[in-house]
Amino acid sequence: MKKQTKIALLSTMFAVTAALSGCGQAAKAPEGNASTGGGEQAAAGDQKIVIGSVGPLSGSASDYGSTALQGEEYALAQKAEDFKKLGFTVELSKQDDQADPKQGVASAEMLISDPNVLAVVGHVTTGSSIPAAAKYDEAGLVMVSPSSTGSNLTDAGKKVVHRICARDDQQGTKAAIYAKNQLGVKTAFLIHDKGAYGQGLAEQVKKQFEKDGVQVLAFEGVTAGEKDYSAIVNQVVAKNPDMIYFGGYYAEAGIIVKQAREKGFKGPFMGGDGLDSADMLKIAGDAANNVVFTSTVGDLSGSDEGKKWIADFEKATGKKVGIFTSFGYDAMNVTLNGLMEAIKANGGKKPSREQVLDAIHKTSDFQGQFVKVSFDEKGDNKFAQVFAYKYDNNNKVFIGEVKE
User: Fold this and answer.
1) Would you call 161 helix, strand, or coil by DSSP?
2) 274-295, pLDDT tens digit by residue?
3) Torsion of CA 338, 339, 340, 344, to 10 degrees
4) At what angle do helices 304-317 and 62-85 cross, to 10 degrees?
5) Considering the entire predicted model, what is its pTM?
């Protein structure tokens, strides 16, 4: 990248960051430009378009929301000037849904109430996405999730719903096949957090295990947010399975695997992308070794192009790439591409929500930085993949793509 281009990019990012500073929580009502966090008004002669960004920016799942947001901001910063030339200022309205279904609905209602909001990148978690999608569907406001994997999200038949990541039935099925074929698992104890994402994923694993002849010794739910899971761990130890599978997030998984190791369980511990977090290592410590998890996100540093993107991102933002930075980036670019197509189709004028929805829904063979995107009728990405990782000596190690 030439020096002048770098300076232009940094200047653009600074302007976007300034416009986003002081962002309010989802509970605040939109007033003038407040939906974008009190940023500056659109320049004279420019029309304002707002894109909503929703995910957990606080709470136990904040690692997911904050990293997705970083990628979204970076993508918008790179494309802002393209829209400026057409007479549009594109702003971001950041909403913190705390990975909570009720707050997810509140965030959705907040965005819907602002007529300048033409699309939403989010939500980040399945539990929040599903109830919010019902609200967006009523308003005809399109959403593009970078990371909500629950199968029910798109199976509900709402045209506004889209995602660039794999579904839980893909992730769960491939996880079970990997456990049987690569880890030699013959018996398994399945635990889930009773949530839309965690339980749904565990159910898919259970279904595939039963199909493949792997004995499921138990299928038990736990309450998220607790600090002691010794009761369920005692059941695991008593049944002595080859493997523990946990459907849920790292906060609970870290405690469960640590307590299981302390009680003598030595087999593999497996989960989905909810286990992908540096905080998993902090919580579990050495017990995280031999933890295997699937993810919808591949190895970003596996190519020279990927390494360059990481270096450029970190230099421009001063932040480290996290779990969903790349998919936040690609989900935003899919959204911006659809928005640009809608503007062109509308003769250069500001499009309606319906026109933006139609353009995004028609996305086909869009080559993102890390994932190719073509939406099917449900809004699922035809090119979505599933990958496997493990924790080893306090490091996340990429294993490879998981295929059936």
Assistant:
1) strand
2) 999 999 999 999 999 989 999 9
3) 100
4) 90
5) 0.84
